Structure formats: structure tokens, C-alpha cells
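Human: If only I could read C-alpha cells as easily as an amino acid sequence. Take your time, and here it is.
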Amino acid sequence: MSGDPILDRWSAQRGFTLIEVMVAAVVAVISVMGLAYMFSAGRGMIDRYAAARDALEAAQSRLDWLAMEAVKNPAAAELNIGLHGPNPRVLNHNRTGTESWTVVWVDDPVDNLGGDADPHDYKRATVEIDWRQGGLPDHVSMSRSFLAP
């Protein structure tokens, strides 16, 4: 004891009260729950973008293949006008989706100036990849035009 009543009082009250410990525990639990939620949400976004990258790659591959078929085999069934698919597609090694493509005729507006008798100048293929991520639908669509035979 120092003889000073204020200092003696402070030295006798060491440690935390039960209320202080409970408040600190509640704050810690709320902080940890918030961090756990953020990690979970971040992981979900990473998975979603991985599936979207795979879908873009699949759409680009299909369009490349269709463009090569238009040169090699213009009469291929995959180049017929209309809807093709849907076909099952696996994305990001664990997501199941569908792939379909539509082929339509496109008229070149430049050759219409002199009176175009044939409106079938190009074919346009539009590839669509659909899948579900976290219970929500997701979609990628990509198009390319190429010369008609």
C-alpha cells in the first residue's frame, strides 16, 4: 500500500469483470462470423467466375469449330439454319450446363445498294451456354459471322 487512497483502490481492482469478458466474447464471435461469411462469399464468386471463364472458352471453341466447318464442309449439318442443341456441357469440372447454337442468314447491307436478289450473304452463329450457380441461372452468349457457301 502506498498510503494514497486512490492508488490503493486501483491496485486492489486487478483483472476484468464478468460483464467485460462477456462483451469481449460477443464482439469476437460477431467478428469471426463476419469474416467466415466474407470468405464464403468470396469463394462463391471465385467459383462463379471460374465457371464463366469455362463457358466463354467453350463458346469460343464452338465458334472456332463452326468457322472451320464453314470452310472445310459448308454442307455440314451443324451449319444448317436453326437451333442446334441443347447439349450437356461440364463447366469448371463440376458444374453441369447446356450448350446450344443458332445459325441464321445475314444480309449484307452494302450489296443492297444495287438491288440484291440474294439476301443470304453470311451466316451468323450464336452460341449460348447456360448453367446454374448457387441456385441462380447464369448465361454466356457469343456470336460470329462467316461467309455463306
